[in-house]
TrEMBL record:
Belongs to the mis12 family. This is Protein MIS12 homolog. Its main location: nucleus. Signal peptide: none annotated. One of its GO terms (cellular component) is MIS12/MIND type complex. The gene is Mis12. InterPro entries: Centromere_Mis12 (IPR008685). It comes from the Eukaryota. It comes from Pycnonotus jocosus (Red-whiskered bulbul). Residues 108-206 form a coiled coil.
Length: 209
C-alpha cells in the first residue's frame, strides 16, 4: 500500500485513496477465498460419484490451500500494479489543479509569516475574549452580592422605621436622638463596668496578700 498521505485527494473525494484501495483489496481477497471453497465443494461432489476413488476430503483441502496460496501470490503482484496505476491516473489530483473551495487562496495569497501573524492575532483575541468573559462573570457575581446586601439593608431600615413608629406611639422623642443617647449611655456603662472589674481585681490581689 502507498504511504503517500494524499491529503488533497482526501479533501476532494471525502476519503483517502489508500482506504479505497484497501477496501478493493479486501473485497477481491474475500471473493477469492469464497471461490476456492466453492471449487473445493464441487470437487468433493464430483469425486463422490467416481467408484473406487481413494482421494479423501483432507487431501482435497490440502490441494485447495496450496492452490489458494499460489493464487494469492499472483493476485498480490497484479493488485500492486493495479494500485499504482489507479493512484497515479485515477485517484490522483494533478499539481496544477485547484479545488473550488481553495480558489480564494489564489485570489488572496499569503505567506507563512502572514499566516503566523494571523494565528498570533487570533490567539490574542481569544485570550482577550476569555478575560472579558471572566470579568463579566465577576461583575455579575458582585451584582448578586450587592443585591443581597441591599435586601438586608432594606430589612434593617424597615426595622428602624418600625422602632421609630413605636417610639412615636409611646410618646418618645426623636428616635435617632434617642438611639444616639442610648449608644452613649451604653458606652458609659461599659466604661463603668470596666472600672468596677479593675477595682475588683485589685481587691482580690490585696486579699491574697
Amino acid at each position: 500500500m502507498s504511504v503517500n498521505p494524499m491529503v488533497y485527494e482526501a479533501q476532494f473525494f471525502g476519503f483517502t485513496p489508500q482506504t479505497c484501495m484497501l477496501r478493493i483489496y479486501i473485497a477481491f481477497q474475500d471473493y477469492l477465498f469464497e471461490t476456492m471453497l466453492v471449487v473445493e465443494a464441487v470437487m468433493l461432489k464430483k469425486l463422490e460419484g467416481i467408484p473406487g476413488c481413494k482421494v479423501s476430503p483432507s487431501q482435497i483441502r490440502k490441494c485447495t490451500e496450496k492452490f489458494l496460496v499460489f493464487m494469492k501470490e499472483h493476485f498480490d503482484k497484479l493488485f500492486a500494479k493495479m494500485e499504482e496505476m489507479l493512484l497515479q491516473l485515477v485517484l490522483n489530483i494533478p499539481k496544477n489543479v485547484l479545488l473550488p473551495e481553495d480558489r480564494v487562496q489564489e485570489q488572496y495569497p499569503y505567506s507563512e509569516e502572514e499566516f503566523q501573524a494571523l494565528q498570533d492575532e487570533l490567539q490574542q483575541l481569544q485570550q482577550q475574549y476569555r478575560a472579558e468573559v471572566a470579568m463579566e462573570q465577576a461583575l455579575r457575581t458582585e451584582l448578586e452580592e450587592q443585591k443581597i446586601v441591599k435586601a438586608e439593608l432594606e430589612k434593617i431600615l424597615q426595622c428602624f422605621d418600625g422602632l421609630e413608629s413605636i417610639c412615636r406611639e409611646q410618646g418618645v422623642g426623636n428616635f435617632k436622638e434617642s438611639f444616639a443617647l442610648l449608644t452613649q449611655n451604653c458606652k458609659k456603662l461599659q466604661d463603668v463596668l470596666k472600672d468596677v472589674e479593675k477595682k475588683s481585681e485589685k481587691m482580690k490581689q490585696h486579699d491574697q496578700l
